[in-house]
Structures are given as C-alpha cells and as structure tokens.
Amino acid sequence: MSNKVETLTEGARSLIQRAFKIHHPVYGFSTTSTQIYDTAWVAMISKAVDGEKQWLFPESFQYLLKWQADDGSWGRHPKTKTVGILDTAAALLALFRHLKEPLQLHDESPEDIRLRIARAVQSLRIQLAAWDDILTTNHIGVEIIAPALLIYLESEDSNLVFEFQGKQMLMDMNKAKLARFDPESLYRTRPSSTVHSLEAFISKVDFDKIGHHLFRGSMLASPSSTAAYLMHASVWDDEAEAYLDHVVNLGSGNGHGGIPGTHSTAYFEFNWIIATLLRGAFRRADIECSELFGIGKIILEGFEADQGVIGFAPRAVDVDDTAKGLLTLSLLDMDEGVSPAPMVAIFEAENHFRTFGAERDPSFTSNCHVLLALLQRADRDQFLPQIKKVVSFLCQSWWDCDGLIKDKWHLSHLYPTMLLVQGFIDLIWHTEHGAFSDVFHPELLSRVSICIFQACLRTILGQNLDGSWNGQPEETSYAILTLGEAARLLLFKDLQSVLTSAIRRGSTFLQSNHWTSPDQNWTSKTAYRATFVAEAYWLAAVKVGLDPIGETALSVGHSLESPQLSKRMNGYLNTVSQTKLFSSMPFWELRASFVESMLFAPLLRAERLKVYDRDHMGISRDSYLDIIPFTWIGCNNRSRTYVATSLLFDMMILSMLGYQTDEFIEAIAAPAFAHDTVQLHELIDDIIDRNVVTHIHFTHSPIRNDISKDRDIVKVSLQRFVNHVLEHKQIRKASPEDQATLRHELRAFLHAHTTQIESNAGIMRPGRSSDGLSWHDSGRPFFDWVRTTAADHVACAYSFAFNHCLLSALIGDGKNVFPTVKENYLVRAVARHMATMCRLCNDFGSVDRDLLEGNLNSVDFPEFVNVPSVLEKKRILAELAEYERRCLFHTLQELELAATQSAKQANSIGQFNKRKVKVVRYFADVTDFYDQLYLVRDLSSTVRQDQTPEGDME
C-alpha cells in the first residue's frame, strides 16, 4: 500500500505543479472543456484585414462542422435538455451567418451548409418540443439567452418560427428577468453579472458604452460575451481580440478552434484543487512544494485586488470562490490578514448567502462552501449568526427538496450531497468538542443528523454494479468522498463493512478507466468539465479507497446516537422482514432504513401531545410511534422515490394523529356521546364548516380534572385536530380543489368514527357470542359497509388527500394535482381501493382486540354467519384485501396513462405529471405495507376497560 500512497502523493504534487506552471500572468488559465455555444459565438467574429472582411477565427467554424451530430444537433446532454438547445441554436446561427457570407472560407459548399442547416433546424424543433426542464434548469442566463437566440435565428430566415410547449413559460421568465434589468446599469462603472452574457442584449444596449468593463481583454471572463462586444462595438478592440486569440490558440481547445465557456478559471481551479486534496485525503506536509505556496500567494493577491473577495477570475467575484478561497488559505495556514467579513458584507442575504448580486434563486452548494469556510476558521465564533443562518438554510433546503438534491452550479446530485455531508459532519464535530454552546437547538441538530444520514445512505443506494456512480469518474469520486465522511459518523457503526465495500468498489472503477467519456456536470451557460479539478477529486477518492475507514472512524456523532436504538431494532426488524414488501430487501439496507427512522423518533415524540392529551386517556402505550417512521422511510428508500423529507415528517405526524384520533374517539368521545351521537355528528360538521382555531394549553394532569365537561373536551380536541389538518401552512398553499377534497375526506373520516360508536353500541348488547355474530344493520350489505363507512373509518382516504395537498404546495406550484375528469375519477378510485383494502387488513389483525373491546369488525356481518371458524373468516378477509390490492394497482396504471394523456392535451410541460403519479404509487406502497403489518400484528393501542389514566407513557 505504501507504494500506492506514494504514487498518489506524487500525482497530487504533480497536479499542483502543472497548474501553477500553466498560469499566465495576464490571462490566467483554464482546463475547462470546450463548449459549442461559446465556440459558435467566436466563429461569428469577422474583421477587415487589409480592407477585406474575413472570418477572424475560421478554425472555430471548422470545429462546429466537425462536431455536428448525425441528427443535426450539437452538445446534447443526458441530464439537461437546455445544453443541447443552446448549443444547437448558437451553432445554427453561425451556419446561417457563414452561408450568407462565406468570405475567405471555400472548403464547404453552400449546398452542404444548407443541408447542415436543415438538419439543425429539424433537431432544434425536436429538442424544443421535448424541453420539459425549463423551470428546473439553472444554466446561467437561460431565460435571457434562449429567447435572444430564437429571435436572432428568426431574423436570419423569415420562414423560421419556433413554437413549442414551453415557449410561453420561457417568455414569462424572460419578461420577469428583464423587468428587473436596467440597461443603464451596464454603462456604470461597477460590473454586474449581466456583463457575462452580453450576447443576449444585442440591439438592446449600446456596446460602445460598455468597453470600460473589459478587463485583460475579456468581458467577465466570457468568450461569448467578449465575442458579442467585439462584433457590435463600432471601434475595433485589439485587447479583446488578443484575449480571444489567446483562448483559441493556448486555451483548452489546444488550437483546434474549440472555445471554453469561461477563461480564465484560475482562481476556481486553484482553490478547488488545493481544498479537495487537503480536505479529501492528503496532508499538507505530503504535498508541500514551492508551487503550492506560489498558488497560495496568487490567491492572496486575488483577495487583495478585489477588496477581500474573489471570483473564478479577477473582477468576477462571487461567494462560491470567495468561500473556497478562504478555506484553501486556512488549510494552507496562509489566512492571516484575510477575513470572511467582506464576504459577509457583500453576499449575506436575509436567510442565506447569495452567489452574486442578482440571482434567480439561491445556490445550495454556495452556502455549503460558506459553511465549510467559516467552520475552518480559528475565529469562527465571530461568525456564529452566519453559521447558524447557513445551517438552517441548508437543512430546510434539504428537507424541502423533492427527489435528490439539486444545485444551480452542478448537474449531479452527488456534488451538493458531498458538500453537505462534509459541512454538517464538521458542524457536529465542533459541537461535540465544545464549540457553539447553546447556539443550536436540539431539534435543529436532530434535523441535521437526518440530513447527513439520508445523504450518505442514498449515496450508497445509488452505486452501480460496476462500482461506479452513473458510470462517471468525477461523480464516483464525489460519492467515495461522501462515504469516506460517513465512516467518521457513529450512526454508521453497523454499516462499516458496507461503506468499506462501496468505497473500494468505487475506487476500483476509478482505477480501471472503464468509462466512455468523462462527465461534464459543471454548469455555466451550458455544461463543462474542469480537467484539473476532476483530477484532484480522482486523486483524493482513490487515496480514500486505500484506507476507507481510516483513523477518524466513528469519531463523530456520539451526541446523536439513540440509546434505545439497539433495544428496539431486532423485534421490529423481524416483524418487517416477514412482510411481502420487505422480505427480499438486503438485511443491511433494512437495518439502515431503521436507523434513519429512529432519527425521526425524537421529533415525532415532540409532536405527540400537541393535539390530544393521550397520556391521560386510559389507553396502553403508543408503541406505534416506533414503527410509524419506518413505514414512510422504508418505502421511500425501497422505491428510491425520495419524496421531500418535510413531506415524510408531515405524513408521519398525520399517521400518528390517525391512531390518536381512533384512541380519542373510543376512550373519550364514545362515552361522552354514547346516547346522543346525533350531537356529535352536528359538532363535527360545525367544527369543519367553521374551521375554528382554538388555542388551549395542555396540562399533563388527568383531563377530567382539567376540563369539567367531557363534551367540551371532545369539542376542543377535535377543533385542534381539524385545525392541524386544514390549517397546516403547506395545506393552505394547495389548490382550492385539493383542499376541498381534503375537507370532504376529513369530514367523512370523523363521521365514520361517530357511526362506529353507534354500531359498537349495537354489537355490545347481551347475547353476542365469542365468534362475534350478533350485529345487524337493517340488512345493510357487508360490501356496501366496507367500501363506505368502514373504509372512511380508517385514516387512509383523508391522509391520501392530505398528501395531494402537500404535492400541490411543494412541487405543483399550488395547482390542482389531478385536474381532468378522468384523472380525478381514477385517483378517487385509487383512494377507495386503498381505504377498503386497509380496513379489511385492519379488521384481519384486530379480530381479537375488537371482540375484547366491543368494536364492530368485518367478521361480525351476517355474510360471515356460515363461516365455521375465526381462522377461516380471517382467510376470507385476506383474500378480499388481495382482490382490492389488485384493483388498486390496476387503477394506478390507468391513472398513469391518464396523467400522461392529459399533460399532452393541456400542452403543459415539466416533470410534475410523472412525479405526481410516482408519489401516489409511493403512498400506495406505504398503505400496502401497513396492511401487510396488520396481517402480521395488530398495531393499535388497547383502550383500558376501567378508563384509568396510565400516566407517563414514556
């Protein structure tokens, strides 16, 4: 191993030396991959030479011709449709310009150019028609660049008109952006981020008034923006030409005409290289060389030149590079005289840090970099408010994210995941070593621990069979570094062998060179790869792979370990492993989901008395709290759905309230309204119709001593329950249609409980046998009852409606989730099949308890009279439940087809239509799992017949 370590160390030192060596004193350097978009703009520059107009960089046009795909496109990317659209549109524009004016280029015939244009136009139309990630794309300036390109193209050919599904949405984004844009701002001294995208403002600004923004020949280090300036300024700028000439001949295109999207990226690459190596695996003493400190000096000079902040290049300041620069200088022990104060003053916003002055939405990774930089500082205590702000922002962003985490500067979720884990584990380490005393509330730290665990577990679950992540080297490096951090965390103590195996398999992949092309997941206007940065991640990841656990194993997280975890786990693991849904899941994965679930337990228990004071209701211990988190977490991990953590927790609370409402009705409401259920029905209607909000403080003394009248207790408790469901902050953001459905289902749920009181009173009359065969309800068929009152009685239908409201609010922009007649009909059919299945399984599991407590059960109906035994009755219930299950999953298939069809008919875009059905399937899995649990054991608490308060259930 020592030889491998030395080889990697030499490689790290060599990388540092090469980066320092290629740094140009004026133009810096860039190892970022070439981009068709910028190449196209440079290819369109013409200049009069000896009185004759010529294309200035013909090699760039040749580059475009070389890389046009057979389908006519350029730059199509597997993770974002925006890249292919912008690349194809820009290259097509260059073809039009060269067809109109071939100038000195005669190698390509006009007919060949026309054929290329025709193929490009066809491809662009196809790509625009499929552009469904407009809202989620975060490429720099897409909302101004894409509309501008379409206008430029239409001006080249009057027959070109681009109409597509997302055009109106794109233009709305464009309008909103331009409403905040003042052209006069470009004429002022202070540069803005708009300078980076001047090509989007042709004919909108006076290019003769913006030459003062040119620095070392470039417009904010953007070749495309510089090209636009050079093309449209009335006076030729030799400095800009010299810059572009350097980029063409000595840039990452190596003189072949390809142009990177940004040049220089020296500060970016220097900082990422050093911070990655020193943070990831290498000690400073191992890679020390004169070039290392030479790089540190260049970074220091950059901070000085831009008044305490830096960017990826001079004058292009941003919080990302500033924070990474601060971290790098701290790791090099060269941070004396450099403070985070200017970064805080310039980039701090109300609840997060901005990447730069004007941005459409905040960056997750930028705030991760700020956290890592501040935690590394010796003077971190001076920035406690900022640290707390960033931690809260990152935590809430993770909790609210539907699916895997996303960021505007990177297309891979593994990059922000890695940064989050690094930052939050550092935070926990500092907290456990005496820092931040009383700064962070235990609830926030609990939420932080959930973020860490989810991030690490989802990384493990995403590994391919070949050891890679998505078959890409840089993404695999991120994942390995994430799992290397996970090995430090005590929460992963039972998964150390899993971590070791995953890291080593990933490292083997990295060393095999078995990938077709390197990943290009960094985003700018399009997407790119930074070769030196990728090499740094590769070196750090392979180094971690040599010793996956390392000296710091299990050194963090002592304050997060649950002392009750190991005591409870084995029993529940055994129960869950017997269910059909989880019987084939690998044991380590099942165990990991249980660990994640237990992290929610303190948060859930903190909610248990906010609606019902169940500790004084005379019922047995609420053991269902131990299993509720897993029902949502286990199914989430099993299906890899990864719904928002906030949605998970809201549904956990709602599941708890479902059990508690059942307990409350049986223990308190039933005795209080035993002889007058009509009034209870009226009370329910009144509460829901008025939606009264009552704030009454709970005490922990017996309820009967706190409020004199039992009916007042019922009223107050039900008001509080209805308020929690209907006045939830996310529910209020849902569509009116989805809120109305929730209100309807909630009303049906509570009325069904009241009807159950009436039914129970009938069944408890003398003469009921031990087989429970004495109940009759005016000849009402079992089929009718089980699909209506009985199905309404379980919490499934209103919980399903609650989930729809969360979907509408969190990812549906407040729109009706299932808007068409067919969708609405089918989703209600889904709800009815689920609720019926749930009631049948519930009754299967509670036959004995219902007999003991005098509750109406399915087997009490006359249809079961001739069934000879309880065992046979339960077998029939199980068969009927399986029938409803088959109906459920058939209806889900129909719903998916209907949602797809309605999206096409409505000319809508976006991935919401696919996502909403996937989340519905996830909910169905949770319901199915609950039903399978009922087939194994009865989850409900028992109502004590003597109604004696049980006291502290903890």
Automatic annotation (TrEMBL):
Keywords for this protein: Isomerase, Lyase, Magnesium, Metal-binding
- What cofactor does this chain's UniProt record say it requires? Mg(2+)
- Per the UniProt entry, what is one GO biological process? diterpenoid biosynthetic process
- Top-rank taxon of the source lineage equals Eukaryota
Q: Name one GO molecular function term.
A: terpene synthase activity
PANTHER family for this protein: (E,E)-GERANYLLINALOOL SYNTHASE, ENT-COPALYL DIPHOSPHATE SYNTHASE, CHLOROPLASTIC
The entry sums up its family as follows: Belongs to the terpene synthase family.
Query: What protein name applies here?
Result: Ent-kaur-16-ene synthase
What is the taxonomic lineage of the source species?
Eukaryota, Fungi, Dikarya, Ascomycota, Pezizomycotina
